[in-house]
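Write out the 3D structure for:
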Amino acid sequence: MSEASTRLSQYFPGIRFSETAETFPIACPSDETFLNRVAVAYTGKSVDEIKLLCKKIETDLGRTESSRQKGEIAIDIDLLKWDDTILKASDLERDYIKKLLAALGE
């Protein structure tokens, strides 16, 4: 997670990260818990540019489609909101995400 944070910081100067929360898998065939963080950044990049950057980081850090299908998630970076557009409403409703965002003052 620290390498992902480092790379995101390079792409998005001023990005703020929450503390880490340990959560159980949701809709994933894994028995292991996950470590989760949220981040808030402001950028002039388009939503497509941001998604491509996130996918590149995931791939560079070992995420593959076959490992994801097995429930082996090396890294998962999701863009939940861009500008005023909510991209993953169900994720934003999760309690742990609400708490982590609130801790960042969002």
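The first strand starts at residue 16 and ends at 17.
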